[in-house]
Design a protein that fits this description.
Strand order of the largest sheet: 1-2-8-6-7-4-3-11
Distance between the termini: 33 Å
Order of helices and strands: HEEHEEEEEHEHEEHE
Number of strands: 11
Structural class: alpha+beta
Radius of gyration: 19 Å
Strand content: 25-35%
Largest sheet: 8 strands, antiparallel, barrel
Helix content: 10-25%
């Protein structure tokens, strides 16, 4: 009887907990192509909850990949583009605690943050293009890896990384652009929607905890 009561209690707990499960897969929908990222919700729960907050509130819609450093990272999540310059800022939620559990190897996604402040990550993240463990795992308290690109998704990330970059100053000193040239920059040709790598949306594609 005690065992049946315990099993019944556990079943009730599972029913209560299950609807609160965090998403494990999100889809990045970009002008270059779509790809999926599996999130480490059990190992980095605070970071995944933070990213889900931005996803659920649509704050990654209309954002751009604003930095592409060859052989290093492709970065986004911080700025929006509405058909013309200047870029806008993503409205940030409070910073999240650092959770450096995994190595910054190729194909992983990690939170960007302010130098000298391990617990300063808000909306920005980056995809590791190479094995960056030696550089990033110990720097600034370690950079929190919270997921990995799955399937053939790195083909899309690599396409973004292969785009030429242009110096628009500040956070946009390594801005990847499509259908653009250095001559266009020299002649102050305005950017339009055909140029930046725009993320139309980031959505939950699989909410099963993994």
């Amino acid at each position: 009887a005690k065992q049946r009561a315990w099993q019944s209690t556990m079943a009730c707990i599972m029913v209560i907990v299950s609807p609160l499960a965090k998403a494990t897969v999100v889809e990045f929908q970009t002008v270059v192509g779509d790809f999926e990222v599996n999130l480490y919700d059990n190992a980095t729960p605070e970071t995944v909850a933070n990213v889900r907050n931005y996803v659920n509130n649509g704050r990654y819609s209309g954002t751009v990949m604003h930095r592409s450093a060859t052989g290093f990272v492709v970065q986004g999540g911080g700025f929006t583009f509405d058909q013309a310059l200047p870029f806008g800022n993503v409205a940030a939620f409070p910073a999240v605690v650092n959770e450096p559990e995994f190595a910054n190897i190729r194909g992983t996604i990690a939170m960007a943050k302010i130098g000298g402040n391990p617990n300063s990550a808000t909306s920005q993240w980056f995809f590791n293009l190479d094995d960056n463990t030696a550089n990033l795992d110990g720097q600034n308290g370690g950079f929190t890896v919270f997921g990995e690109v799955v399937g053939s998704g790195m083909d899309i990330v690599d396409q973004i990384a292969a785009l030429p970059v242009y110096d628009f100053g500040g956070a946009f000193a390594e801005l990847p652009l499509r259908n653009y040239t250095q001559a266009a920059l020299n002649n102050n040709l305005e950017l339009d929607s055909s140029h930046p790598v725009v993320i139309s949306a980031v959505i939950v594609s699989d909410s099963t905890v993994d």
